[in-house]
Design brief:
The structure is a single chain. The chain is globular. 33% of the residues lie in helices and 24% in strands. The chain is built from eight helices and 18 strands. The chain starts with 7 loop residues before the first strand and ends with a helix. The chain is α+β, with helices and mostly antiparallel strands. The strands form six sheets. It has a five-stranded antiparallel β-sheet with strand order 1-2-3-7-6. It binds ligand PZK.
Length: 298
């Protein structure tokens, strides 16, 4: 994906994490996208930069709620060893402070879908939190809920766990802080996005401690890869909601006869172009700035 002269610490489905020095990491987002849990062979130009630009913007919006790990996204401020790679890294990479990550996937949901819907169908609640009867796929929840999960091995799905299970892993004090911060980030993000015509159905955060022991927001935040983005004007509880960013891809894949096994088919250029436009549109709607201005600022 990216061949940097740095140790690769972790590789996600569509991004990579490199060790820069003892205190710093470089998070690099690729232009790949996954659909039906398979990473497709076709890149969507600028997707990594859109997600990085959104994350950086959200970090700033959320600065009064929680501190974050971002040091800089300007390639000119990256360590000198990365200078030859500036063109490949521009817009899609963040130099971050190294944290000690909390081993809990911090998820907040404001709408019922996905694994939350599955849990609700089986138990009448999510992660042990009861919910009213009669909710359907896409229903708005009476209030946002913290639905933590434990990290699964690469390729597997995270497993929803109860709040009590989180207390067992990290203690009562940190569990309460994780819940408070996760809901505060989600509520702020969902309120702002809804004003711009985008429903943030749910989001997944990664939190960690810095060397001073402060809880810090890591990873990428409130992006279409870490959250479900739905167009507000297409919202209709009782069915699967259209995806803000991936719907053209899903529609084309559904009609292609693909059996949802890897590697997946190459996407036609018009699907790639329409999908790129959705990512750029999400950036510009949410931030109120041009995507070009993001690229220029890095
Ligand atoms: C860290 N991840 C998840 C993200 C991947 C995997 N600031 C940090 N300090 C220490 N560790 C992490 C972070 C961050 N962010 C994040 N795993 C470790 C992850 C991106 C790509 F492959």
């Amino acid at each position: 994906m990216t061949d940097l002269p740095l140790p690769l610490l972790a590789r996600g489905k569509v991004r990579e994490l490199y060790e820069v020095d003892a205190d710093h990491l470089l998070l690099v987002a690729s232009d790949r996208l996954s659909a039906y849990d398979v990473v497709l062979p076709t890149a969507v130009p600028d997707k990594g930069a859109v997600l990085t630009g959104l994350s950086v913007w959200w970090f700033d919006q959320l600065a009064d709620v929680v501190p974050n790990h971002l040091v800089t996204a300007r390639t000119s401020e990256f360590p000198a060893v990365l200078e030859p790679y500036a063109a490949q890294l521009r817009g899609r990479s963040m130099l971050c402070r190294r944290l000690t990550m909390v081993p809990v996937e911090c998820v907040a949901r404001g709408y019922l879908t996905g694994s939350g819907l599955k849990d609700y169908a089986q138990t009448g609640g999510i992660c042990g939190e009861p919910l009213p009867p009669g909710l359907v796929d896409g229903s708005r929840l009476p209030e946002s809920v913290f639905t933590p999960a434990t990290k699964a091995a690469v390729g597997d799905h995270d497993e929803n766990v109860s709040y009590d299970a989180v207390v067992q892993v990290v203690g009562a004090e940190l569990a309460a802080e994780l819940r408070r911060l996760t809901l505060a980030v989600y509520d702020r993000g969902a309120r702002l996005a809804a004003e711009r015509g985008i429903l943030l159905a749910d989001t997944k955060l990664e939190l960690g401690h810095d060397t001073a022991g402060t809880l810090v927001l890591g990873d990428e935040v409130l992006t279409p890869d870490s959250s479900r983005f739905w167009p507000a004007d297409g919202w209709q509880p009782g069915r699967a909601q259209p995806s803000y960013d991936k719907q053209f891809v899903r529609d084309w894949l559904d009609a292609s006869g693909w059996d949802r096994t890897a590697p997946g088919p190459e996407l036609p250029v018009e699907v790639v172009e329409k999908t790129r436009a959705k990512y750029v549109q999400a950036y510009e709607l949410l931030t109120g700035s041009s995507f070009d201005s993001w690229l220029r600022s890095t």
